[in-house]
Design a protein that fits this description.
This protein has 105 residues and is mostly beta strands. Helix content is 0%, strand content 41%. The radius of gyration is 14 Å and the shape is globular.
């Protein structure tokens, strides 16, 4: 994993990663040429924009309960900010926040 900026990392397969404060974890999008789904990227590692929206589903706390459903994080990433949509199952649903910096390792 390589640092492109304080908020964006690159990984194999033409994928870029940013930290999601709603999920408290990294989200990845594929950009450029390559296998799998691809997003457009504005090329700005300090204020990235990805299109279309980023939809992540995962087995979070809601999925572990009887009749539970997967957790959902759905957002638009525009100019270095994450706009969380109303179908998110975490506490930041409906809010817009700056992409946080990666913690120094």
């Amino acid at each position: 994993m390589g640092a492109l900026s304080k908020i964006l990392r690159s990984t194999e397969g033409g994928r870029l990663m940013f930290w999601c404060p709603g999920c408290d974890g990294a989200h990845q999008v594929g950009v450029g040429e390559g296998a799998g789904r691809r997003w457009s990227y504005n090329g700005n590692p300090d204020a990235p924009t990805f299109m279309p929206s980023v939809l992540v589903t995962y087995n979070g706390a809601d999925a572990d309960t009887p009749g539970g459903v997967p957790s959902v994080c759905h957002s638009f990433v525009t100019d270095g900010r994450i706009q969380f949509l109303g179908d998110c199952t975490h506490a930041l649903a409906g809010q817009t926040v700056d992409i946080p910096e990666w913690e120094a390792s």
